[in-house]
Amino acid sequence: MKIAIVTDSTSYLPAELVQKYDIKIVPVEVVFDGKTYKEDIDINTSEFYDLLQSSPELPSTAQPSMGEMINIYDDLAKEGYDTIISIHLASTISGFVNNLKTAAQTIENADVRVIDSQITTRLMGYQVEYAAMQASKGKSVDEIIDGIHDLQTTTGEAFVVNDLKNLVKGGRLSNTSAVIGTMLQIKPLLEFDNETHQIVAYDKVRSIKKAKLKAEEKLANAYKNADYQLRMLVIDGDDIQAGNEWAEHLKEVYPDVKIDRSYFGPVIGTHLGKGALAVAWIKEFDR
C-alpha cells in the first residue's frame, strides 16, 4: 500500500514538513475587489494583510474546483499511490470538504478517503502531519484515520479577535447576537464548539490583555484535566511580536510542553482580520 497525503493551504504547514513527507497542498483562493489570488502562490501573508488594510471592500474566499481536485487525485494514482488521505478545513466554515466527498466517489484508480478536520489552521496541519508520519511508518489507512479522529477529540483553542465584520458577514459566527457589544470595544473570545464544530463566541471582555488571560484560563484547565501530554500552539494574524511574546510567556508557565508558533494566512485572515491571536492545544503525537 502506498498512501498519499493531501490537504489545503489553510493547514499552514512548515515547508520542511511538506517536503519531508511529500504532502500535496491545494491552494484555497482569496478574492479582493474581483481579483483572485491563490493562497501562498499568488499572495503571501504579508502582502495579504497590506491589501486588507488598504482595500475598501472586505475580501472573500473561494474553494478549489472539484475538477482540480479530481485531476490531483488522478495524477497521484498515476504516480503509484493506491490510497489517498485528503484532510481539509471544517465543513462548518466551508462546503469544500462535503463537495469533495461526493467528487472523490468518482475516482476509480485509487481509494480516496476525505477527512473533515473539524478545524483549520495549524491545528488541522497537525492532523496532516500525524497522517504523513504514520504513513511513512507503514501504518494502514484505517489505523491512520482512527488516529486522526482520536487527535480531533483532544483539540482545543481560544481565538482573540479585533474585528468580527467578516465573520459575521460570511455567516461563520453561529451566535452573532452574543457579541453585539463589540461596537463598544468588547473583545470576544471564540472557539470551535466541541459538539457542533461551529465557531462560537464563548466569552467577552474589554481588553486584549483580559482576553488573553481568559484564553490562558481555558488552556490551564485543558492542561490540568488531560491524562496525556499536550502540545501547545500560539497563532498570530500579522502580529509576530505579540505572538512571540505570548509563546515565550507560555514556555515559562509550561516548561515541559512543546509550544509551537504559527500564523493566520490569507484565507483564515479574511475571516479573523488583522491582529487576531490564538492559543491552542492538542495531544502530543510525536513523542
Tell me briefly what this model is:
With 287 residues, this protein is α/β, with parallel strands linked by helices. The protein folds into two domains: 3-28 and 64-152, Rossmann fold (3-Layer(aba) Sandwich), CATH 3.40.50; 156-283, 2-Layer Sandwich (Hypothetical Protein Tm841, Chain: A,domain 3).
Which structural traits does this protein have?
287 residues, alpha/beta, Rossmann fold, Hypothetical Protein Tm841, Chain: A,domain 3, 2 domains, 4-stranded parallel sheet, 13 strands, globular
Structure description:
The protein is globular. By secondary structure, it is an alpha/beta fold. It is 39% helix and 24% strand. Helix 3 crosses helix 4 and helix 5 packs antiparallel against helix 6. It starts with a strand and ends with a strand. It has 2 domains: 115 residues, Rossmann fold, CATH 3.40.50; 128 residues, Hypothetical Protein Tm841, Chain: A,domain 3.
